[in-house]
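Sequence, please.
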């Protein structure tokens, strides 16, 4: 009988993409997963609403802890990165401490930390980003990544403030933004630096078009989940980060 791995997701209330894309990725592995979510109220991607959303974290952690999950992903990249450089370490530590006080050994991840983990696995030191955020928040995200020693060569912000609308951004618009950048000297392209902006169906096509590794907040999240559980897998059509014989299988 195969082992069932329970994955917890803490998400903004308006987010519908991460609960679609990460299960799609992980179910391609042939490994048994179940998914369990808790939601934080948030509508507009603004510093004020992100701060108010983060304040709901403890309630969500308690709810997810009740499900006995093996790993939990705090699935809002910008909510972490808007809090200042290195905040993913503090947030992950605090969630682990809260869960640990109840005797849980649940692995704790964040979308911000997972993206950095994925870039590190790809040995990407110079990257380009496509983001849905307004430009001030986009600059904070770029600065956060650069504070981790990764140069952001170029970025595009689609300037969609309503988080529900972010989930409806078309793939054509995302690819158009990527094509407008000079990618000749970058090690990787982050096609969606946000778990709410749909991109999974674009990742492999973009790798083929641009000839470099392409990842997203969702593929990086799935990679981090697999790594935290000590699992390796071949995930078709999800980019080189999750490809058999690539960095995951070689760890």
């Amino acid at each position: 009988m195969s082992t069932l791995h329970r994955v917890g997701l803490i998400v903004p209330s308006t987010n519908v993409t991460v609960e679609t894309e990460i299960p799609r990725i992980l179910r391609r592995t042939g490994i048994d997963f179940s998914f369990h979510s808790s939601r934080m109220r948030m509508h507009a991607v603004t510093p004020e609403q992100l701060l108010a959303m983060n304040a709901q974290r403890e309630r969500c952690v308690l709810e997810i802890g009740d499900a006995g999950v093996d790993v939990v992903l705090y699935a809002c990249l910008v909510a972490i990165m808007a809090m200042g450089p290195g905040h993913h370490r503090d947030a992950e530590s605090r969630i682990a401490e809260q869960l640990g006080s109840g005797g849980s050994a649940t692995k704790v991840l964040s979308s911000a930390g997972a993206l950095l983990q994925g870039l590190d696995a790809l040995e990407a030191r110079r990257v380009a980003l496509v983001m849905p955020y307004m430009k001030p928040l986009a600059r904070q995200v770029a600065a956060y990544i650069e504070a981790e020693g990764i140069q952001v060569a170029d970025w595009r912000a689609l300037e969609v403030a309503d988080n529900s609308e972010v989930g409806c951004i078309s793939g054509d618009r995302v690819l158009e933004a990527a094509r407008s950048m000079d990618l000749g000297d970058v090690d990787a392209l982050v096609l969606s630096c946000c778990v709410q902006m749909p991109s999974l169906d674009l990742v492999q096509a973009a790798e083929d078009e641009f000839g470099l590794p392409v990842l997203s907040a969702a593929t990086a999240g799935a990679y981090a989940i697999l790594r935290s559980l000590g699992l390796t897998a071949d995930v078709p059509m999800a980019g080189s980060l999750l490809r058999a014989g690539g960095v995951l299988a070689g760890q």
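The chain has a mean pLDDT of 93.
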